[in-house]
Design brief:
The complex is a heterodimer of chains A (242) and B (206). Chain A is an alpha+beta fold and 242 residues long. Chain A is 37% helix and 22% strand. Chain A contains six helices and eight strands, in the order βββββαααββαβαα. In chain A, strands 3-2-1-4-5 form a five-stranded antiparallel beta sheet. In chain A, strands 7-6-8 form a three-stranded antiparallel beta sheet. In chain A, helix 1 packs antiparallel against helix 2 and helix 1 (84-100) runs antiparallel to helix 6. Chain B has 206 residues and is α/β, with parallel strands linked by helices. Chain B contains eight helices and six strands. A four-stranded parallel beta sheet of chain B has the order 4-3-5-6. In chain B, helix 1 packs across helix 2 (30-42). In chain B, 24% of the residues are buried. The chains are: A alpha+beta (242), B alpha/beta (206). The A-B interface holds A 11, 13, 17, 46-47, 49-51, 73, 75-82, 84, 87-88, 90-91, 94-95, 98, 226-228, 231, 238 and B 26-27, 121-124, 126, 153-155, 158-159, 162-163, 165-166, 192-195, 197-198, 201. Chain A: Keywords: DNA damage, DNA recombination, DNA repair. Chain A: InterPro entries: ARFGAP/RecO, DNA_rep/recomb_RecO_N, NA-bd_OB-fold, RecO, RecO_C. Chain A: Involved in DNA repair and RecF pathway recombination. Chain A: This is DNA repair protein RecO. Chain A: Belongs to the RecO family.
Chain lengths: 242, 206
């Protein structure tokens, strides 16, 4: 068995004294692990950092073997290391992908959205709204896409300001009626409307967090979402406070 | 002495157990462990007995310094007990190997603080698993002027560095970190793009 693909490195852990097991989020093969011989060496270890863009060749005798990766570094994204907020974003992305996606299941759309997001983190552009859209896409990829196009009650496309915590569908002000207090606020940033304030971002992350928790709950066995995501939210909140 | 085992038909069990233990050490596999044990057995008086004695002594006396986390043979390590070392600077390192590396270089004459690891999403290591609360307490009680973050230039190392810098922000202490860039003797042609980028960003007047 052999294939070649490109992707973002998600994790590295030592394997014996000189090798490493890495996980790469590839376009055609999804989240895939493999052994890198010499991956713990002084020459190769610095290149195997989470967030790095790599080209990998995977070889194994049988498809269900762990297999051996040959890694060709393409882009280190090292500038992330000096930006605490971007680094928190990178940690959150890697942790969420590792937790939410089954191994070896292709998610080309999510991959196509992840690479530009990592590039935006490194470039230092205003990436938090893009991260939010990425979490929405992640929800969609794991089978729980939110329907924010029309009101679940009236069918209207206007004045959508709530989301049902059960169905994940948008609800308009008029449609909410007396149920408004039981619904989740829908910040405009999730509808792609207008500039996003820090408060909007926090509210939107709380909303995506609610559904991620609910959908990933069985996988997490009662544990919360990754600490890396919590640290990103804390850091965004601190930035908003100035 | 009982006999039999994986390392040779009649290898006594005690020697086999020794080989198995040696093979767990970094850099040694079963074959190299067997060679090492053979050397020890041939030099029982000159090497094996003193080694066993030294190991037994250190196994009893080794402990973590209660101030900095360094490994020593008393409650307070030699560095923390040394009055000649500067008290206003604390150099934060990931583990004792990093402290030893800095001591070998002989370039730092202040005090250390050993975290015992780095924050890691992969291994679920949070701040409470590291000696970060102890560091914050030290900074508050030891009249510290500067905390030098000498952590690895990896994602986990720098995540930890940023976390500590945030945690110390309220204390008003100066927080610095090691520079990143071209190593001594390094050739630009062979550097990865991340190191080159860091070096260019950290350029200085010449």
């Amino acid at each position: 068995m052999e294939w070649r693909d490109e992707g973002a490195l998600l994790s590295v852990r030592p394997h014996g004294e000189s090798a490493a097991i890495i996980e790469v989020f590839t376009g055609e093969h999804g989240r895939h692990a493999g052994v890198v011989r010499g991956g713990a060496s002084r020459r190769i270890a610095p290149l195997l950092q989470p967030g790095a863009q790599v080209q990998v060749t995977w070889r194994a005798r049988l498809d269900d073997h762990l297999g051996i990766f040959t890694v060709e570094p393409l882009h280190a994204r090292a500038a992330l290391l000096s930006d605490p907020l971007a680094l928190a974003g990178l940690n959150a992305i890697c942790a969420m992908l590792r937790m939410a996606l089954p191994e070896r299941e292709p998610h080309p759309m999510l991959h196509a959205a992840t690479i530009p997001l990592l590039d935006a983190l490194e470039a230092g552009t205003d990436w938090p709204p893009a991260y939010l859209r990425w979490e929405l896409l992640l929800l969609e990829e794991i089978g729980f896409g939110l329907d924010l196009a029309t009101c679940a009650v009236t069918g209207s496309r206007d004045d959508l300001i709530y989301v049902s915590p059960k169905s994940g569908r948008a609800v308009s002000r008029q449609g909410a009626g007396d149920w408004a207090s039981r619904l989740l606020p829908l910040p405009p940033v999730l509808l792609g409307q207008g500039p996003a304030s820090a408060g909007d971002i926090a509210q939107a992350l709380a909303l995506t967090g609610h559904f991620l928790n609910r959908e990933l709950g069985p996988l997490l066995n009662g544990r919360p979402l990754p600490e890396a995501r919590t640290r990103l939210i804390d850091r965004l909140a601190r930035r908003a406070q100035g | 002495m009982a006999a039999g085992g994986a390392h040779g038909g009649d290898t006594p069990r005690e020697i086999e157990a020794l080989i198995d233990l040696m093979a767990r050490l970094p850099g040694l596999g079963p074959r190299s462990a067997r060679r090492a044990v053979l050397v020890l057995l041939k030099r029982r008086g000159a090497l094996m007995a003193p080694l066993a004695q030294a190991m037994a002594q250190v196994a009893v006396s080794a402990r973590d310094c209660r101030i900095c986390g360094n490994i020593g043979t008393s409650d307070i390590c030699a560095i923390c007990a040394d009055d000649r070392r500067a008290t206003g600077e604390i150099c934060v390192v990931e583990d004792v190997a990093d402290l030893w590396a800095l001591e070998r270089a002989g370039v730092f004459r202040g005090r250390y603080h050993v975290l015992g690891g780095t924050l890691s999403a992969l291994d679920a290591v949070g701040p409470e698993e590291l000696r970060i609360p102890d560091l914050i307490e030290r900074v508050a009680t030891e009249a510290t002027r500067e905390v030098i973050l000498a952590l690895n230039a990896t994602v986990d190392g720098q995540t930890t560095a940023h976390y500590i810098a945030d945690a110390l922000a309220a204390t008003g202490v100066s927080v610095t970190s090691l520079a990143q860039g071209v190593p001594i003797g390094g050739e630009l042609d062979y550097l990865d793009d991340g190191t080159l980028g860091a070096a260019l960003r950290a350029r200085k007047s010449f």
